[in-house]
Design brief:
Helix content is 50%, strand content 13%. It has 444 residues and is of the alpha+beta class. The chain has one domain: Cytochrome P450 (Cytochrome p450), CATH 1.10.630.10. The strands form 5 sheets. The protein has a 6-stranded mixed β-sheet. It has a 3-stranded antiparallel β-sheet with strand order 5-15-12. It has a two-stranded antiparallel ribbon with strand order 6-7. The protein is globular and about 60 Å long. It binds protoporphyrin IX containing FE (HEM). Protoporphyrin IX containing FE (HEM) binds next to helix 13, helix 14 and helix 18. GO terms for molecular function: heme binding; iron ion binding; monooxygenase activity; oxidoreductase activity, acting on paired donors, with incorporation or reduction of molecular oxygen. Keywords: Heme, Iron, Metal-binding, Monooxygenase, Oxidoreductase. Its cofactor is heme. InterPro entries: Cyt_P450, Cyt_P450_CS, Cyt_P450_E_grp-I, Cyt_P450_sf, Cytochrome_P450_Monoox. Belongs to the cytochrome P450 family.
Amino acid sequence: MQILSGKDLLPHLSKIRKDTPGFLLECSRRYGDLVEFAVGGTRVFFINHPDLIRRVLQDNHHNYSKDTIQYNTLATITGRGLLTSDGEEWLRHRRMEQPAFSRSRLAALDQVIAPALEAMLVRWGQQPEDAVVDIDREMMAVTLEIVGQALFSIDLRTDAPRLTQAVLTALDHVIYRAQNPFAPPDWLPIPQNLSFRKALRQLDRAVYEILESRRRSGEKRDDLLGMLMDARDAESGGSRLTDQQIRDEIITLLIAGHETVASALTWSWYLLAQHPEVWEEMREEVSRLPDDRLPCYPDLERLPFTAAVFSEALRLYPPAWLITRKALGEDELNGYKIPAGALIVISPYVIHRHPQYWEDAEEFLPQRFTGGRERSIPRFAYIPFGGGPRLCIGNNFAMIEGVLILAGITQRYRLKLAVEGAVQADPLVTLRPHHGLPMRLQKI
Ligand code: HEM
């Protein structure tokens, strides 16, 4: 195992800050599957082998918690929702929320996706031919609308524009914090912190309004919000979740459930525009659908290539490019002792390029995921949705949404890049194109 000290890392500081995934990739190429960064008081281990990842995320997951800078920073917005909580509390909430992601509910997701997609396509239809739009922004808007409607029956576009804005402002702050580890603490009344606090207040107000209005209406809806409001916590003698707990879960799902899918879609469009032959093949598959209406759930089985495009985009540009854990007790990885308190760093971006598991790893080749070939990929060499008990609760939701949106847009539009050269991926909360992704809309 290679150990890199602060002195070794100093010359790479700018790369680490601007292009952390690229830096981690270089480390893995140069030093192998287990690297220690010995900086400050914490020992940091970067692991990049399916067996080691399996050990941390699955086989010995009880020994690893989410008490890390990454999740603690996110928790300043989400509180201890499903994504950031641990232990018994996490398990109870996971069980509570799981039914909202059951097969039968997901089968009805197309009824939410189609109207949101249709509204976007109508807007695009009003643009002049060859208009340029920021696809990143468009994908963010449509996915936020879908998750709001699917899980909470709220129309975020018309009912809660303030909520949308507050989510985005608060996320910006998380990014600012991550990029500026030595920035003044959150409690100092500097302008950046004040606007963060204002965004948090707005978020709270908007979420509590949603809760209040559901209570006032007396309506019993069987969406996730209804489930959370009705849930009784057996552990605490059958008491209901507090408003704070419900708020934390709502914000968690809005954040985890929209920017990730949007990012995967944006990179899919980027890759498709660079590989016209792949787009042609996808277009052919889409044009074989029985009629011209937007694709719906039963059409998914006719769209294996479109699904492969989405999976391959998730491989090259995994939105959740970083997964971290803190070791609660000692462990052993590859024969090396991992002390309690160590930080474990896993990067889907890097393992998805491991030359032992991926041939021509940098190439965009959706056929890796067709014809049963995907079954030969080792489970923990492909982890866009994580793995083990903390596997993304929305993985199937995201696949359905991603494929239906790709197919629906391909029925009517061809998207061409409106920027020259390669687009840089910014490692923010998710992997996002630097300065958005301007694309030209060409009607088919
Ligand atoms: C392409 C889209 C998505 C990607 C790439 C993605 C990725 C991930 C990853 C990697 C994790 C595990 C993090 C870890 O182990 O530390 C995760 C967890 C989670 N995701 Fe997703 N996600 C996506 C879509 C969604 C959607 C659509 C939802 C909800 C509607 C969602 C909700 C969550 C939640 C609540 C967790 C925490 C689960 C738990 O710990 O029990 N995600 N996601």
